[in-house]
Amino acid sequence: MAGLSTHVLDTAQGVPxxxxxxxxxxxxxxxxxxxxxxxTNDDGRTDKPLLGAAQMRTGVFEILFxxxxxxxxxxATAPKQDFLDVVPVRFTIADASQHYHVPLLASPWSYTxxxxx
Length: 117
Known about the structure:
By secondary structure, this protein is mainly beta. It has a single domain, classed as Transthyretin/hydroxyisourate hydrolase domain (Immunoglobulin-like, Sandwich). The chain has 1 helix and 10 strands. A hairpin with a 4-residue loop joins β2 and β3. The longest helix has 7 residues, at about 65-75. About 25% of the residues are buried.
């Protein structure tokens, strides 16, 4: 089913990253429009898709993952670091009939993403 979803994994601790603010922004010519603002749950996912099937459309989007606040407040077992703050992931939805899953794997020092299923 079509839609846009995400999740965040804390690779330093090997756990889902709960409580991370996620913004979905649509880039339209010279305009940036916030489409969705969500917080990850205990599974590191949002409670509903960033875009549901009825909301899917082609275009350029950016997910802003606010990981800095998460790592600043993470459990005492994680080293405190002021390196990453907001991680932007810009991507294109070329086929609105498909499902797009954009996960973020993050530590206090690095991150990676990919188009998942």
